[in-house]
Amino acid sequence: MTDYIRKRRSLHLPITLSVALLTLNVTLMICWIVILARQFYWGALAVGTVAFSLMIVGIAVYMVLTIKEVRLNQRQVNFVDSVTHELKSPIASLKLYLETLSMREMEAEKRRHFYDIMEDELDRLDRLINQLLEVGRLDAIGHEAEEERIQLDELIMECAQSAATHQKVVGDDVFTFDLEPLRVQSRRIVLEMIFRNLLDNAIKYGGSPPKVKVILSRSEKNQILVRVVDDGEGIPAEQRNKVFQIFYRGGDELERRTKGTGLGLYIVRTLVYLLKGKIQVDTGDDNRGTAFEVQLPGTMLK
After folding, report:
1. Which of 40, 148, 169, 269 could make an S-S bridge to 244, C-beta 3.0–4.6 Å?
2. Predicted local distance difference test score (pLDDT) of residue 217
């Protein structure tokens, strides 16, 4: 069934149909111009040419909109595949360990190990549900959160430790920091969500083992600049404008080895724009890896 849906929503049919209609329309317009020009029907020629031109524009617009919709549908299918896997995997694991614990007695140490694994799986479910809820309340976060004085370098360090714990790595082994001590007036929960997602993403798509550099500085225009650089495979240039789209993940979800839902960078971009900032992605250091740079306006406090 899934294969049928994917096939039905492929780009081949709308592109082929649109090209065929455009070709037919152009052919008819040329014939119309040739016939009327020979008979000197200039009024009909002008009206017909305008009508055919409008039809060509309409077909082209239809093709563009259809392609956009098909691509969104494809991203939604990938998203459903991803969320289904992310939900089923921990549930199946929990069920297996519960059945094992109920079927036989075991040593306290092994039982404790099972409990730890089950707790990790529950945390994984909790993070997924929270991320889905975050997408639904992004606008509310922007209006409900109150501004406060924030030591930004300390907040980034906390987010890095949280991301390291989430990805089960040692923060000191992964992160290198170059943080200028900056205190800002902003919304804590918004900044936490931005940098937690960025840093988590950097570890996830970094090398093996991952190495992530985080730089916090102040620009000449008194803007806050945060640069997060990983040592992974990087993002192809043609995909860099797409990675912030909702549900977008490069490649086929069924063939991907990295877990995720395609929501993290969408959340980041939405919240950065909410703070009237900018975010851009580029190649990392030495032409390898990925670098995300966040520019935030803000009043630097002493």
Report:
1. 269
2. 93
Do 171 and 262 have their domain in common?
Answer: yes
Instruction: From residue 260, give the alpha-carbon distance in Å to each of 50, 81, 206, 240, 279.
Output: 50, 10, 14, 17, 21
d(C-alpha 69, C-alpha 61), whole Å: 12
Alpha-carbon dihedral of residues 262, 265, 266, 271, nearest 10 degrees? 150
> Does 11 share its domain with 68?
yes
The Cβ of residue 130 has, within 10 Å, a number of other Cβ atoms equal to 9
Asked if residue 204 is part of any domain, the answer here is yes
Q: Within its chain, how far is the Cα of 300 from the centroid?
A: 29
Say which CATH number the domain at 103 has: 1.10.287
Same structural domain for residues 120 and 156? no
* Mean pLDDT score, 163-172: 87
Note the residue count of the chain. Answer: 302
> Cα separation of 207 and 130, whole Å?
27
Count of structural domains, the chain = 3
What is the edge-to-edge ordering of all strands in the sheet holding 147-151? 147-151, 183-187, 300-301
Q: Where are the alpha helices (DSSP H) in the chain?
A: 2-8, 12-39, 42-103, 108-136, 138-144, 152-166, 171-174, 188-204, 264-274
Would you state the pLDDT for residue 259? 55
In the block, tokens 């966040």 appear at: 294
Please compute, for residue 269, the number of CA atoms within 13 A of its CA located in the half-sphere on the CB side.
15
**Chosen domain end from 42, 76, 110:** 76
Domain of 294: which CATH number? 3.30.565.10
Do 138 and 275 meet the contact criterion of CB atoms below 8 Å apart?
no
